[in-house]
Amino acid sequence: MSKKPQIMLLGTGRAVPEKILTNADLERIVETSDDWIVARTGIKQRHVAEPGSALSDLVTEAARKALQDAGVSAGEIDLIVLGTVTGDMKFPATACLVQEKLGAKNAVAFDISAACSGFLYGLQVAEGLMTTSGYRRALVIGGEILTSMVNWQDRDTCVLFGDGAGAVVLGPSDGERGLLQSCLRSDGAHSGLLYNPGGGSVNPPTAENVAAQLHTIRMEGKEVFRHAVTSMTGALKQVLEQAGLTGEDLDLLIPHQANLRIIEAVAKRFKMPMEKVFVNVDRYGNTSAASIPIALDELRRSGQLKEGALVGLVTFGAGFTWAAALLRF
Ligand code: ACO
Questions:
Q1: Does any ligand 1 atom lie closer than 6 A to the CB of residue 317?
Q2: What is the average pLDDT score of the chain?
Q3: Which residues pair with 311 in a beta bridge?
Q4: Residue of the nearest CA to atom 12 in ligand 1?
Q5: DSSP secondary structure string, 146-161?
Q6: In this predicted model, what pLDDT tens digit does every residue of 81-116 receive, in sequence order?
Q7: Mean per-residue pLDDT for 4-31?
Q8: Tell me: the pLDDT tens digits for 39-78?
């Protein structure tokens, strides 16, 4: 049976760069077509940051909106957890830069590196700290400027990604609403199927390594696709079983927005009609850790998250990492 929720969402916010890159724009950059991209991924456009933009600015904007939505001041925040692999710099943690921009003087702030799973990892880490360390108000954020590590000559990857940030404010549960179940998984055996080889200790940013494009994303798309479907299905099944529920009990599924075909394949395994599955990959592309909190904010602000609704969240990303959660609204 489902445990009593300890934490719940008090507010949400999102921010995306103004500039939109359409599939037609990409047709002018690499040998691709709108038809191919839509048929293979469901993506029609993505928001892209100007080169040199600070992720912390995008994240701060999303966080400010979430604080306003929650009616919570920055000074009341005890914890800031940011899921990202495209922070402003190698260090300090971008969460610390966001803390300063928000004026959240009382918060402990750190980043989580779990790629597309960063937000759900952050949610569970925040739940743990809030229940054991007495933190009462937390900001959990997913934010990425993935286009800063895209190789615009590689059509296999450059059509997939977009930039954005989504944030939630968490507080103690009222006993009914909030995080019912969650699970986190990882398997480093597949780290070589999706990675960014450059800029770290193995391939420091020398002129030679940059010229070899080692600072950009490498991916075996077909293999990632296969693992994503299997792992997301397994994680969602696990949290449903732990709660004594099935896919039919879900009012809504919010899957990580990487590829419409991955989303449809997962939904099919739970016999979920697509009307109950949230999709915005067509408008944003894959925004990695930002995709689920952006979706939560879109749904909440458009009034689609009704009180009492049971929502499943599920994700998969580099590492490999994957995760699922059940939320009662
Ligand atoms: N435009 C036109 N043709 C293309 C493009 C493109 N942008 N990209 C690849 N192709 C070509 C390939 O070269 C290949 O041509 P060939 O048959 O002559 O060799 C053909 O299209 C088919 O390529 P595949 O890689 O087999 O295409 P597939 O159906 O697997 O789709 C895709 C590729 C979209 C990358 C898919 O594998 C995928 O989405 N994988 C998941 C990857 C992902 O989402 N990663 C993000 C991070 S992890 C996560 O968030 C889940």
A1: yes
A2: 97
A3: 252, 327
A4: 156
A5: GGGG--TT-HHHHTTB
A6: 999 999 999 999 999 999 999 999 999 999 999 999
A7: 97
A8: 999 999 999 999 999 999 999 999 999 999 999 999 999 9
**Closest Cα to residue 156, out of 189, 203, 193, 188?**
193
Is any atom of ligand 1 closer than 6 Å to the C-beta of 116? yes
Domains and CATH numbers, the chain: 7-173 (3.40.47.10), 180-328 (3.40.47.10)
Distance 162 CA to ligand 1 centre (A): 16
Beta-carbon contacts of 279 under 8 Å, excluding residues fewer than 6 positions away, are 42, 257, 260, 263
Which three-class secondary structure string do you get for 87-154?
A: CCCCCCCHHHHHHHHHCCCCCEEEEECCHHHHHHHHHHHHHHHHHHCCCCCEEEEEEEEHHHHCCCCC
pTM of the model: 0.96
Cα 250 to chain center, whole Å?
20
> For residues 180 and 311, is the Cβ–Cβ distance under 8 A?
no
86 in Cβ contact with 94 (< 8 Å): no
Contact 250, 30 (CB under 8 A): no
- Taking the C-alpha atoms of residue 191 and residue 196, their distance in angstroms, rounded to an integer, is 10
Check if the beta carbon of residue 264 is closer than 8 Å to that of residue 140: no
Q: Whose CA is nearest to atom 1 of ligand 1?
A: 32
Q: How many CB atoms sit inside 10 A of residue 30's CB?
A: 14
CA–centroid distance, 69 to ligand 1, in Å, is 38
Sign of the four-CA dihedral 34, 40, 43, 45: negative
Contact call for residues 79 and 139 (beta carbons, < 8 A):
yes
